[in-house]
Specification:
By secondary structure, the protein is mostly helical. It has one domain. 61% of the residues lie in helices and 0% in strands. The protein is flat and about 65 Å long.
Length: 106
């Protein structure tokens, strides 16, 4: 009687549920804002993830491995975080618009 073949180890889940955009370059300003404001840990990860996901809060929360309600709680409690998050969202939307306009002119 043969032993059954061992099952292969499970592959770890990818941290990023969002593929990195092909032409996305991290916004130096958002990174500088997060450092200057003293954001560390989960808040900093969320701000960078907002930029990475082009302003999609649900996907950014997944990428930063936090619950999206944490983001909204921080928005209500921390004025510095709120300003930085709004700026990151606005910058992400502007970068998206610039990319669409660039494609239209090709």
């Amino acid at each position: 009687m043969q032993k059954p073949a061992p099952t292969p180890p499970k592959q770890p889940l990818a941290r990023s549920l969002v593929p990195a955009p092909a032409r996305h370059v991290p916004n130096k300003r958002v990174t500088e804002v997060t450092v200057a404001a003293g954001f560390r840990g989960r808040k900093k990860a969320m701000l960078l993830a907002i930029e990475e996901t082009r302003g999609n809060i649900t996907m950014a929360a997944r990428l930063a491995v936090i619950h999206k309600q944490s983001h909204y709680r921080w928005m209500g409690q921390d004025s510095k975080y709120r300003a930085a998050a709004e700026e990151a969202i606005q910058d992400a939307h502007q970068a998206e618009a610039d990319m669409v306009i660039g494609r239209a002119h090709v």
